Amino acid sequence: MGRYSEPLAPRFAGFAGVAAGQRVLDVGCGSGALTVELVRRLEADALWAVDPSEQFVAAVRVRCPGVRVQRAAAEQLPFQEHLFDTALAQLVVHFMVDPVVGLREMARVTRPRGVVAACV
After folding, report:
1. What CATH number corresponds to the domain at position 112?
2. Residue 17, CA distances (Å) to 3, 86, 95, 96, 108 in order
3. How far is CA 65 from CA 13, 29, 43, 82, in A?
4. How many domains in the chain?
5. Residue range of the domain that includes 84
6. For 11-44, how does the pLDDT look when each residue is reduced to its tens digit (9 = 90+)?
7. pLDDT band for position 1 (50/70/90)?
8. What is the 3-state secondary structure (H, E, C) of 11-57?
9. Torsion angle, CA of 65/21/71/4, rounded to 10 degrees?
10. 0.90 exceeded by pTM
11. Are 60 and 49 in contact (CB under 8 A)?
12. How many whole angstroms separate alpha carbon 109 and alpha carbon 61?
């Protein structure tokens, strides 16, 4: 996945319409390839990232200071409804234990008419 993550991130963020002023969630952030691209487009305090791996969470905290990163599975996102303008999952849906539940959770935490996007 690593060799695809970094070149894909700007294209995926562009496709999803990520722009300044939005609140964005990176689901399954892994080592932070998409998170880094999102920081380029947003202020770090407008960005949240989750991953079920504590090692990836720790790595993204170092790589992307100011981003709120925490351990969580896509199927149980620890956020209130409609908090985000956009929820993204890059190269992670096939790793979710239950992809349908994970995508529903992404939709739950995204505002009405917001963007929920995933790519594999």
Report:
1. 3.40.50.150
2. 23, 9, 24, 24, 19
3. 19, 14, 11, 25
4. 1
5. 2-12+20-119
6. 999 999 999 999 999 999 999 999 999 999 999 9
7. low
8. HHHHHCCCCCCCCEEEECCCCCHHHHHHHHHCCHHHEEEEECCHHHH
9. -80
10. yes
11. yes
12. 22
Q: Which long-range contacts (CB under 8 A, 24 or more apart) does 64-69 make?
A: 64/32, 64/35, 64/36, 64/39, 66/39, 67/35, 67/39, 69/29, 69/35
Question: Three-state DSSP class for 94?
Answer: helix
Q: Percent of the chain at pLDDT above 90?
A: 98
CA–chain centroid gap for 102, Å, is 12
48, 28 Cβ separation under 8 angstroms: no
